Each structure stands twice: as C-alpha cells, then as structure tokens.
Amino acid sequence: MKKSCLITLFACVLAMPVAHAADDMKAFPPAEQGMTRHVLQLPGQDDESAFKVELIVGKTVSVDKRNRYFFGGAIEEQNIEGWGYTRYVLSRIGPMAGTLMAVDPDAPKVSRFVTLSGNPYLIRYNSRLPVVIYVPEGVEVRYRIWRAGAKVKDIEQG
Q1: pLDDT by residue (tens digit) across 16-44?
Q2: If 69 and its partner were Cys, which of 9, 81, 98, 113 is the partner (CB 3.0–4.6 Å)?
Q3: pLDDT value at position 13?
Q4: Which residues have CB under 8 Å from 136's CB, separation 6+?
C-alpha cells in the first residue's frame, strides 16, 4: 500500500510541470490563418536578472556571397488581456533589401539566414512563462541567450 501511494505521489509530482506549462498556454491562442506560433520554454537559472533572450526572426534565402541583406518589419510586444502575459507578434515581413556591391552575375548563390533589420530584439529572461512569438508562415524564429559577466566595473568621474 505504501509503495503504491509513493508511486502515485511521485507520478503526480513529475506531471505538475507539464500541467503547469499547459495552463500557461491557455493564454496564447493558436495562430491565425497564414501565421505560425513558436513557443520557447526557458530553463531555470539561479539569477535570471543576469540573462536576456534575443529573438532572431528571418528567412533562409538564396543570395550572393558579397552583399549584406535584411528584411523590413518589426516585432510588436502585445499584452494578453486578462492574463498579464506578453506575446510577440511579427504581423508581416517586409521586402528584402541589401547593399549594392557589384557581383559577378555568374557567381553561385549561397543559402543564408537573413534577419529583420535594426537592433537586436532583447527581452527579459523568465523561465516561469513561455516565450511565444507569432510570425507569418515561412518565417523562422531563432534565439540566443545573453548573459551578463560576473565582474562589475566602476566608472571614473569626469
């Protein structure tokens, strides 16, 4: 009897994070037609204030080797009414643009991940809630974790 109770208790404890994650997703509706929903669940950290998450949105396209390319568009931060959660939305990806260096027209094309223009899109690190981003179909979402160094330096008065 004791063994059976312990096994049941252990199974319940293991299932709690999965159930909690499913509850968190109730706030985030499925993607609308023509859009996809991407979900990132971050692992817990001892000091999450020392971390940031960079959302990197773009497409893999065939381009020449020499020029630099980027897409127009901006990620919008939206508050989910009644929940207080944040979701991130790229409603449309703009046209691709790039530098105009002359290239040999017979040079082979390369496959490259081309991102949105502008500064890196950094958000707060929070392992207690999923990071949910909605993008148009065919658009890829990648991420990078940034970590502050342990050493803090003084600034001289001037």
Answers
A1: 444 444 566 889 999 999 999 999 999 99
A2: 98
A3: 43
A4: 34, 35, 36, 90, 91, 92, 93
CA 117 to chain centre: 16
Whole-angstrom distance, CA of residue 36 vs CA of residue 76: 15
Residue ranges making up the domain that contains 35: 29-147
Nearest to residue 75, comparing CAs of 42, 122, 28?
122
Report the alpha-carbon distance of residue 47 to residue 36 in Å, rounded: 31
Query: Hey, what are 153's tokens?
Result: 């330096």
Q: What is the CATH number of the domain that holds 44?
A: 2.60.40.550
Residue 138 identity (one-letter amino acid): G
What residues contact 78, with CB distance under 8 A and at least 6 apart? 86, 87, 88, 89
Q: Quick check: is 131 in a domain? A: yes
Q: Is the separation of the CB atoms in 61 and 50 below 8 Å?
A: no
